[in-house]
Amino acid sequence: MGSNAKRPSLEPIFSSKYIETAVELRFSDLPPFGVVAPPEAAARFGNSLCCARNIALSTDLDELTESLIAQPKTLPWGSAQSSTQSRSRKKLIWLDEGSREQAAQLMTNGPNAAPRQKLHEELVANGSGGVRGSSLCSLGLANELRQCFEVDDVPLAFQPNYAHADFPLHYDLPGADGFGRSIVTLNVKAKATILIEESLDHPQCRWRFELQPGDAWAMRGYARTRCAHGVSVMGIAVPTPCTAGCRACRVSLNLRCGAHDEGEVAEIERDWLASPEGAERM
Ligand SMILES: [Zn+2]
Predict the structure, then answer these.
(1) Are the C-beta atoms of 103 and 259 separated by less than 8 Å?
(2) What CATH number has the domain bearing residue 136?
(3) pTM to 2 decimal places
(4) What is the pLDDT of residues 144-160, one digit of tens each?
(5) What element of type H or E holds 257?
(6) 10, 104, 182, 275: most buried, per Cβ within 10 A?
(7) If you measure from the C-alpha of residue 150 to the centroid of ligand 1, how many angstroms do you get, rounded to a whole number?
(8) Cα–Cα distance between 146 and 154 in angstroms, integer?
(9) In a domain, 2, yes or no
(10) What's the gap in Å between 264 CA and the centre of ligand 1?
């Protein structure tokens, strides 16, 4: 960056007022932990949006947290052009050789695509088996997360995320780095508030729910294909990019399951582009 580079903004994307005006969702205590209140949200979301509190895993959460903190972090999470997002990082850990190529191809597509060289470095590092902690992001953990929310789609890849700032409302592009028919997220370290906007069908309706470490949530169907989501990291604003060993960030672990075919991707994206609210979130 040159001397004229803009200093990163530390302003949160979501003001506390914005968050408070979103209506809080309540979830069932029983699997698959779908939305139960308010009634109109329960009717529209049902089990397309789920959240489970303090889920039981055979992997120790503290051990998982430490291993994810220790990882080298190479891939930008969110737009590299955004001063607020460009400090956050993500990683990609595929679950088998078959999903490796599919995941890598999807990740190098789209507006927030991983640069090919960086993704290659990431894949080589993972593939060597020498990265501490990758072994905790195993097929066993993936299957526990899928079972929690009764997800049938095949697990493709884990995506650890390291947030140094809020992540604005956006849509996970299904034919690109936002791939996955069902997306499960384990909240690993620090609190967060998830914001959901029914951008296509009820753009005035915004909802929220708070996550503690150990909580997990999932989206598929209506919540995944017709709604935008964003993440408030509750005041975390770190002016520097994330590095190996960084303890300042909120850490979450996405599990991306099942891929849409090309026809489905085109249909989903066509609906987004046709709506002013949807297009704005792409
Ligand atoms: Zn960090």
Answers:
(1) no
(2) 2.60.120.590
(3) 0.92
(4) 999 999 999 999 999 99
(5) strand 250-257
(6) 182
(7) 31
(8) 9
(9) no
(10) 35
